[in-house]
Amino acid sequence: MMHTDTLNWRLEIDNRDIAYIVSLFECYENLAVVRTVDRDRGIIELMIAPDFADDTARLLEALAKEIPLRRIDPD
């Protein structure tokens, strides 16, 4: 089944980790696109194809063991 919509997950991270996360997701092509919502507060948004939601969640679980991050609801 092909999906045409995207999932938008917001994360709060240390703002010094934004570039790291952007480069990490660039390495995993098609997994998610990262958008910085508020650089000062360390808020980013992942735009995810539904078919890659499970893979993205697993990557975030592994990443959470390395850097502090938490998923937040959009404003």
SSE layout and pairings?
Layout (H helix, E strand, L loop, with lengths): L6 E7 L4 H10 L5 E6 L4 E6 L4 H12 L4 E4 L3
Antiparallel strand pairs: 1-3, 1-4, 2-3
Write a structural description.
By secondary structure, the chain is α+β, with helices and mostly antiparallel strands. The protein has one domain (7-72): Alpha-Beta Plaits. It is 29% helix and 31% strand. It has two helices and four strands; from the N terminus they run βαββαβ. The protein has helices at 18-27, 53-64; strands spanning 7-13, 33-38, 43-48, 69-72. A four-stranded antiparallel beta sheet has the order 2-3-1-4, with helices on one face. A hairpin with a 4-residue loop joins β2 and β3. The longest helix has 12 residues, at 53-64. The protein starts with 6 loop residues before the first strand and ends with a strand. The mean pLDDT is 92.
